[in-house]
């Protein structure tokens, strides 16, 4: 949509002022970025310069709860080699975070280090600082957010025996394709996710497409083929 901007929220756990400034510049304007900083004088200095800062201990779960961490919030955790970020990752998980990225700084950003984190935390991604330039981080965040939303929808409907997907009246090919895509995303079959339209399909070319694609229509042109139902 023209003029529409997708804002994604990001919490960055960093204690290095240079890294914070770089991240703030790289991630804006595509992200709503807040930094969790332990050092109060540093937090005040950054805040005076217009950086959004939350002061707190990132090893405590309540710090992330107070920061309103949600399952669709991207969390970046600095790994500078001076202190292990493992307790921070555990605190993020306990607070409900799912999109976790460990950012290797300088010499610490090695393939061996990335493998260690992957083995300890399979659901966390390890990135080198150099990977932030040119857009890879933004792209990866967008993909992760989409995966998280799909998983959320799947969990929401997981207990339902059957799901009814209702299209708009006299659905066109775009609407029918969207219904099929949603059924696929929910990992349902035509028996457990019925795609319905209150007034069925009337345009001859759309009826012909359904007949050719899904097999058949009944004598009243009610849409009964392959999970479609005219109700």
Q: Care to describe what's here?
A:
It is a single chain. Helix content is 39%, strand content 20%. It folds into 2 domains: 8-155, NAD(P)-binding Rossmann-like Domain (Rossmann fold, 3-Layer(aba) Sandwich), CATH 3.40.50.720; 163-230, no CATH class. 26% of the residues are buried. The strands form 2 sheets. It has a 6-stranded parallel sheet with strand order 3-2-1-4-5-6, sandwiched between helices. Strands 7-8-9 form a 3-stranded parallel sheet, covered by helices on one side. It is elongated, with a radius of gyration of 24 Å. The protein has helices spanning 17-27, 40-48, 61-66, 86-94, 111-120, 136-157, 173-185, 204-214; strands spanning 8-13, 31-37, 53-55, 74-79, 99-104, 124-128, 163-167, 193-197, 228-230.
Please give the structural blueprint:
Layout: E1 8-13, H1 17-27, E2 31-37, H2 40-48, E3 53-55, H3 61-66, E4 74-79, H4 86-94, E5 99-104, H5 111-120, E6 124-128, H6 136-157, E7 163-167, H7 173-185, E8 193-197, H8 204-214, E9 228-230
Descriptive key words:
Rossmann fold, three-stranded parallel sheet, alpha/beta
The CATH architecture of the largest domain would be 3-Layer(aba) Sandwich
Q: What fraction strand?
A: 15-25%
Number of helices: 8
Highest-level CATH class of the largest domain:
Alpha Beta
What is the name of the CATH topology of the largest domain? Rossmann fold
Question: What is this structure, in a nutshell?
Answer:
By secondary structure, the protein is α/β, with parallel strands linked by helices. It has 2 domains: 8-155, NAD(P)-binding Rossmann-like Domain (Rossmann fold), CATH 3.40.50.720; 163-230, no CATH class.
